[in-house]
């Protein structure tokens, strides 16, 4: 009798999962390109595809077009770039916070991080005459890190230590308190209320190339650090003991990932105000498609966040024409049902 050796085959489930992730990546890239086209084409003045092309090509050549539609396209390029980068950073920040806390409700908005950053900037503007993008960034970083530490401290007090529910409650209470302080500072100052009202809800329309250049190094470094942490975060999801056995320095990776997440959130808040729910919605949506592997989850979340915020900004300009509805309002409108669906689960499971 002749023994037949079976040829090793890749598990069908693993192969199907890999194909699904590749398809998701391709779809996400196409969605980013489509979101960019829609952002450039729609607003208070709709333009044609030819005008979009003319606006982009003349901008690349450093020229000023003569067509009014192409001029409108050129004026939308900075806010489109800011929306892409801000959405990407917020989604990455949310994914990192969910991974290191193993909390499905972790998000820069729910945990109060971006509100703390916004409060610090508003204080600098109202009481110290702050007006530079670099100053905004410094204060936003300080406010974000102080708030993150405070929320984690409050959420870890009491029996049971840190739990998803305690962190979410601490973050919600902190957000409410800090939002009230922002309103108390801005409301009596009617002269600047219109100019700085986006510090309450978030809006990418006020950012420009100068402010983007100031925060870009933080965004780039934070993104690189986040992606480099992916494999260690996968080990962390198996439990601290298993992660230590695999050679991961648990405390160090949590600190590094937390610093990257808070830094990304603070940089966005410094130029666009506190935009919520992007970091909550996008990682959950990506997780349904690509699974929990952080090596795929993080880059796909970055692409998904860019699409979400860019489309939210475009929708706000269209429905608010000739003015606009702030992108933070649109993301809150879309994110509230997601938060309710997560909160209504019978059990709060760790990720």
UniProtKB/TrEMBL annotation:
Q: Sorted alphabetically, which InterPro entries does this protein's record hold?
A: ABC_BtuC-like, ABC_transptr_permease_BtuC
User: What are its GO cellular component terms?
Assistant: plasma membrane
Its GO biological process terms?
Answer: siderophore-iron import into cell
- State the compartments where it is located: Cell membrane
Any transmembrane segments, and where? 22-42, 112-130, 137-155, 167-188, 209-233, 253-284, 296-319, 325-343
Q: According to its record, how does it sit in the membrane?
A: Multi-pass membrane protein
The source's domain of life comes to Bacteria
Is Transcription regulation given among the entry's keywords? no
Q: Which GO terms describe its molecular function?
A: transmembrane transporter activity
Q: Does the keyword NADP apply?
A: no
Keywords for this entry?
A: Cell membrane, Membrane, Transmembrane, Transmembrane helix, Transport
Return the similarity comment: Belongs to the binding-protein-dependent transport system permease family. FecCD subfamily.
- Please report the name of this protein according to its UniProt entry: Iron ABC transporter permease
This protein's species is Miniimonas arenae
């Amino acid at each position: 009798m002749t023994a037949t050796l079976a040829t090793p085959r890749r598990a069908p489930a693993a192969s199907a999962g890999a194909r699904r992730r590749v398809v998701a990546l391709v779809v996400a890239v196409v969605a980013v390109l489509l979101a960019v086209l829609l952002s450039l084409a729609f607003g208070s003045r709709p333009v044609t595809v030819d005008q979009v092309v003319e606006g982009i090509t003349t901008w690349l050549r450093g020229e000023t077009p003569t067509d009014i539609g192409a001029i409108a396209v050129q004026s939308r390029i900075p806010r489109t770039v800011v929306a892409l980068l801000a959405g990407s950073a917020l989604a990455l920040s949310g994914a990192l916070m969910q991974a290191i806390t193993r909390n499905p409700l972790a998000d820069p908005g729910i945990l109060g991080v971006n509100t703390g950053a916004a409060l610090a900037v508003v204080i600098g503007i109202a009481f110290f005459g702050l007006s530079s993008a670099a100053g905004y960034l410094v204060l936003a970083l300080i406010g974000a890190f102080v708030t993150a530490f405070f929320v984690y401290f409050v959420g870890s007090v009491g029996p049971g230590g840190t739990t998803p529910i305690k962190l979410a409650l601490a973050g919600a209470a902190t957000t409410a308190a800090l939002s009230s302080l922002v309103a108390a500072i801005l409301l009596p100052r009617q002269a600047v209320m219109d100019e700085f009202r986006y510090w309450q809800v978030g809006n990418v329309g006020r950012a420009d190339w100068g402010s983007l250049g100031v925060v870009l190094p933080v965004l780039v470094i934070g993104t690189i650090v986040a992606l480099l942490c992916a494999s260690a975060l996968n080990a962390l999801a198996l439990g601290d003991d298993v992660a230590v056995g695999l050679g991961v320095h648990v405390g160090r990776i949590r600190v590094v990932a937390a610093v990257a997440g808070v830094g990304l959130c603070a940089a966005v808040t410094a130029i666009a105000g506190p935009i919520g729910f992007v970091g909550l919605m996008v990682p959950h949506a990506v997780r349904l498609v690509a699974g929990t592997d952080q090596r795929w989850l993080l880059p796909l979340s970055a692409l998904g966040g860019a699409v979400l915020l860019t489309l939210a900004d475009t929708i706000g300009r269209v429905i608010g024409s000739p003015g606009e509805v702030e992108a933070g309002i649109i993301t809150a409108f879309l994110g509230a049902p997601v938060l309710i669906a997560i909160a209504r689960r019978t059990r709060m499971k760790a990720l």
